[in-house]
Predict the 3D structure of the following.
Amino acid sequence: MTDAAPAPIRRALLSVSDKTGLIDFARALTERGVELVSTGGSAKAIREAAIPVRDVADLTGYPEMMDGRVKTLHPAVHGGLLALRDNPEHVASMAEHWIQPIDLLCVNLYPFEATVAAGADYETCVENIDIGGPAMIRAAAKNHAHVAVVVDVEDYDVVLAAMDANDRVVPADLKRTLAQRAYARTAAYDAAVSTWLAGHVAEEPRRRAVAGTLRQTLRYGENPHQSAAFYVDGSTRPGVATARQLQGKELSYNNINDTDAAYELTAEFDSKDGPACVIIKHANPCGVATGATLAEAYERARQCDPVSAFGGIVSVNQPLDAETAKAVAEIFTEVVIAPSVAPEAAEIFAAKKNLRLLEAGGLPDPTAPGLTWRQVSGGYLIQDRDAGRLTAADLKVVTKRAPTEAELADLLFAWRVAKHVKSNAIVYAKGGATVGVGAGQMSRVDSTRIAASKAKDMARELGLSEPPTVGSSVASDAFFPFADGLITAAEAGATAVIQPGGSIRDEEVIAAADERGLAMVFTGMRHFRH
């Protein structure tokens, strides 16, 4: 009984928290001969605009009660939404109980997500969980053969255009599309509520839900034969999802992934502590540095691996200035992201039409709690975001020689970078800059060798008399399972090592460090990143 002849929209129920576009939509419906029914603040706003509207209490015979918790949960509302117009029994029930059909439902929900994002207390968040709205949306969406349901402001004009083109009838295919959007909205809403409640229970939730809103349909995914899209979850963590694109081509799948990696690593360096720059290629840092100026930090980061920096992602922790923009513009760069961008810097990049320039509005908090998701066949792996941070006080010196003050600063610098390098990760650092990065190898000693080899390339490029790993500090994201990796680092010239410790061969590794005069500290914390 779902193939009934299409009927025109005669009665609409409007009940929205976000009143953007409400008055224009209500007026347009009235001009098309649609009777309006509304609730609470929506009805008040419509009435104040001198648009005829009935209160939902006129339909139900009951006033709103319990602080508005109960107003639409009534057969007069749900019968009007759920009744099959082509089912004689349903039609008879409507007549018997004085139920009037509702042909169009326009509902958006209490601002639960925004309430949580604003840091409201528990009771306030609970009060912003909508009940009547989702119930009406689901009812209308189930009966989409007869009812058009609108949950997004973007669809107001779509529905009006369809009505104009079809003598007030919303076509079946559009109703089906609107129903899908409606169920996706209630699913996302429930996901937000359940995720928030999960943070207030002691055990792992039996079920997890994830939802997002389409931000951008992408040309393709990692490769041209893969379709892709970018969805946002509504959180306010500064980054690629919150950024304003000032110029450049549309972001690609790989751009978004790499820019996120760059900005999350950049956030490890507080802007109050001085300028820092990160250059990312294929989600791994190919150069990270601090400097007296942002331009100096960029130059030092680029020097670490200028070949990989070509076509990379540049991220900075302070407002992007003209001097830095001028230096970045000298080579091909895919994306530049900064907390803010000076007008002079934007003007310099304007000549680079394809360069994507993003203004994020702030830096994310690297210590903030959160979850990361990864799909595997048949399910998801969910874990806390790696918010681990260390200070000098957290380190345990395990060798005869303790690190010098300069070595200690570089050890902590390298450790922050290693957290964002694919495992097995090895990072050599010197003077607040990376001088060699080894990533994603099957053995730790291979990463150590690759990082040292990169440093030799850097020395040739800059005309240095020796590789910059000489006198450097080295970080390993996990323990050295054998002494070979540490010995390779020592042979490259490293003088200090930071690693988690915890191997059954720790004593062997410590002895190798002592034999070579290295200082080594244990963190007791691992930073695997697969």
In short: The mean pLDDT is 92. The radius of gyration is 30 Å. The longest strand covers residues 284-290.
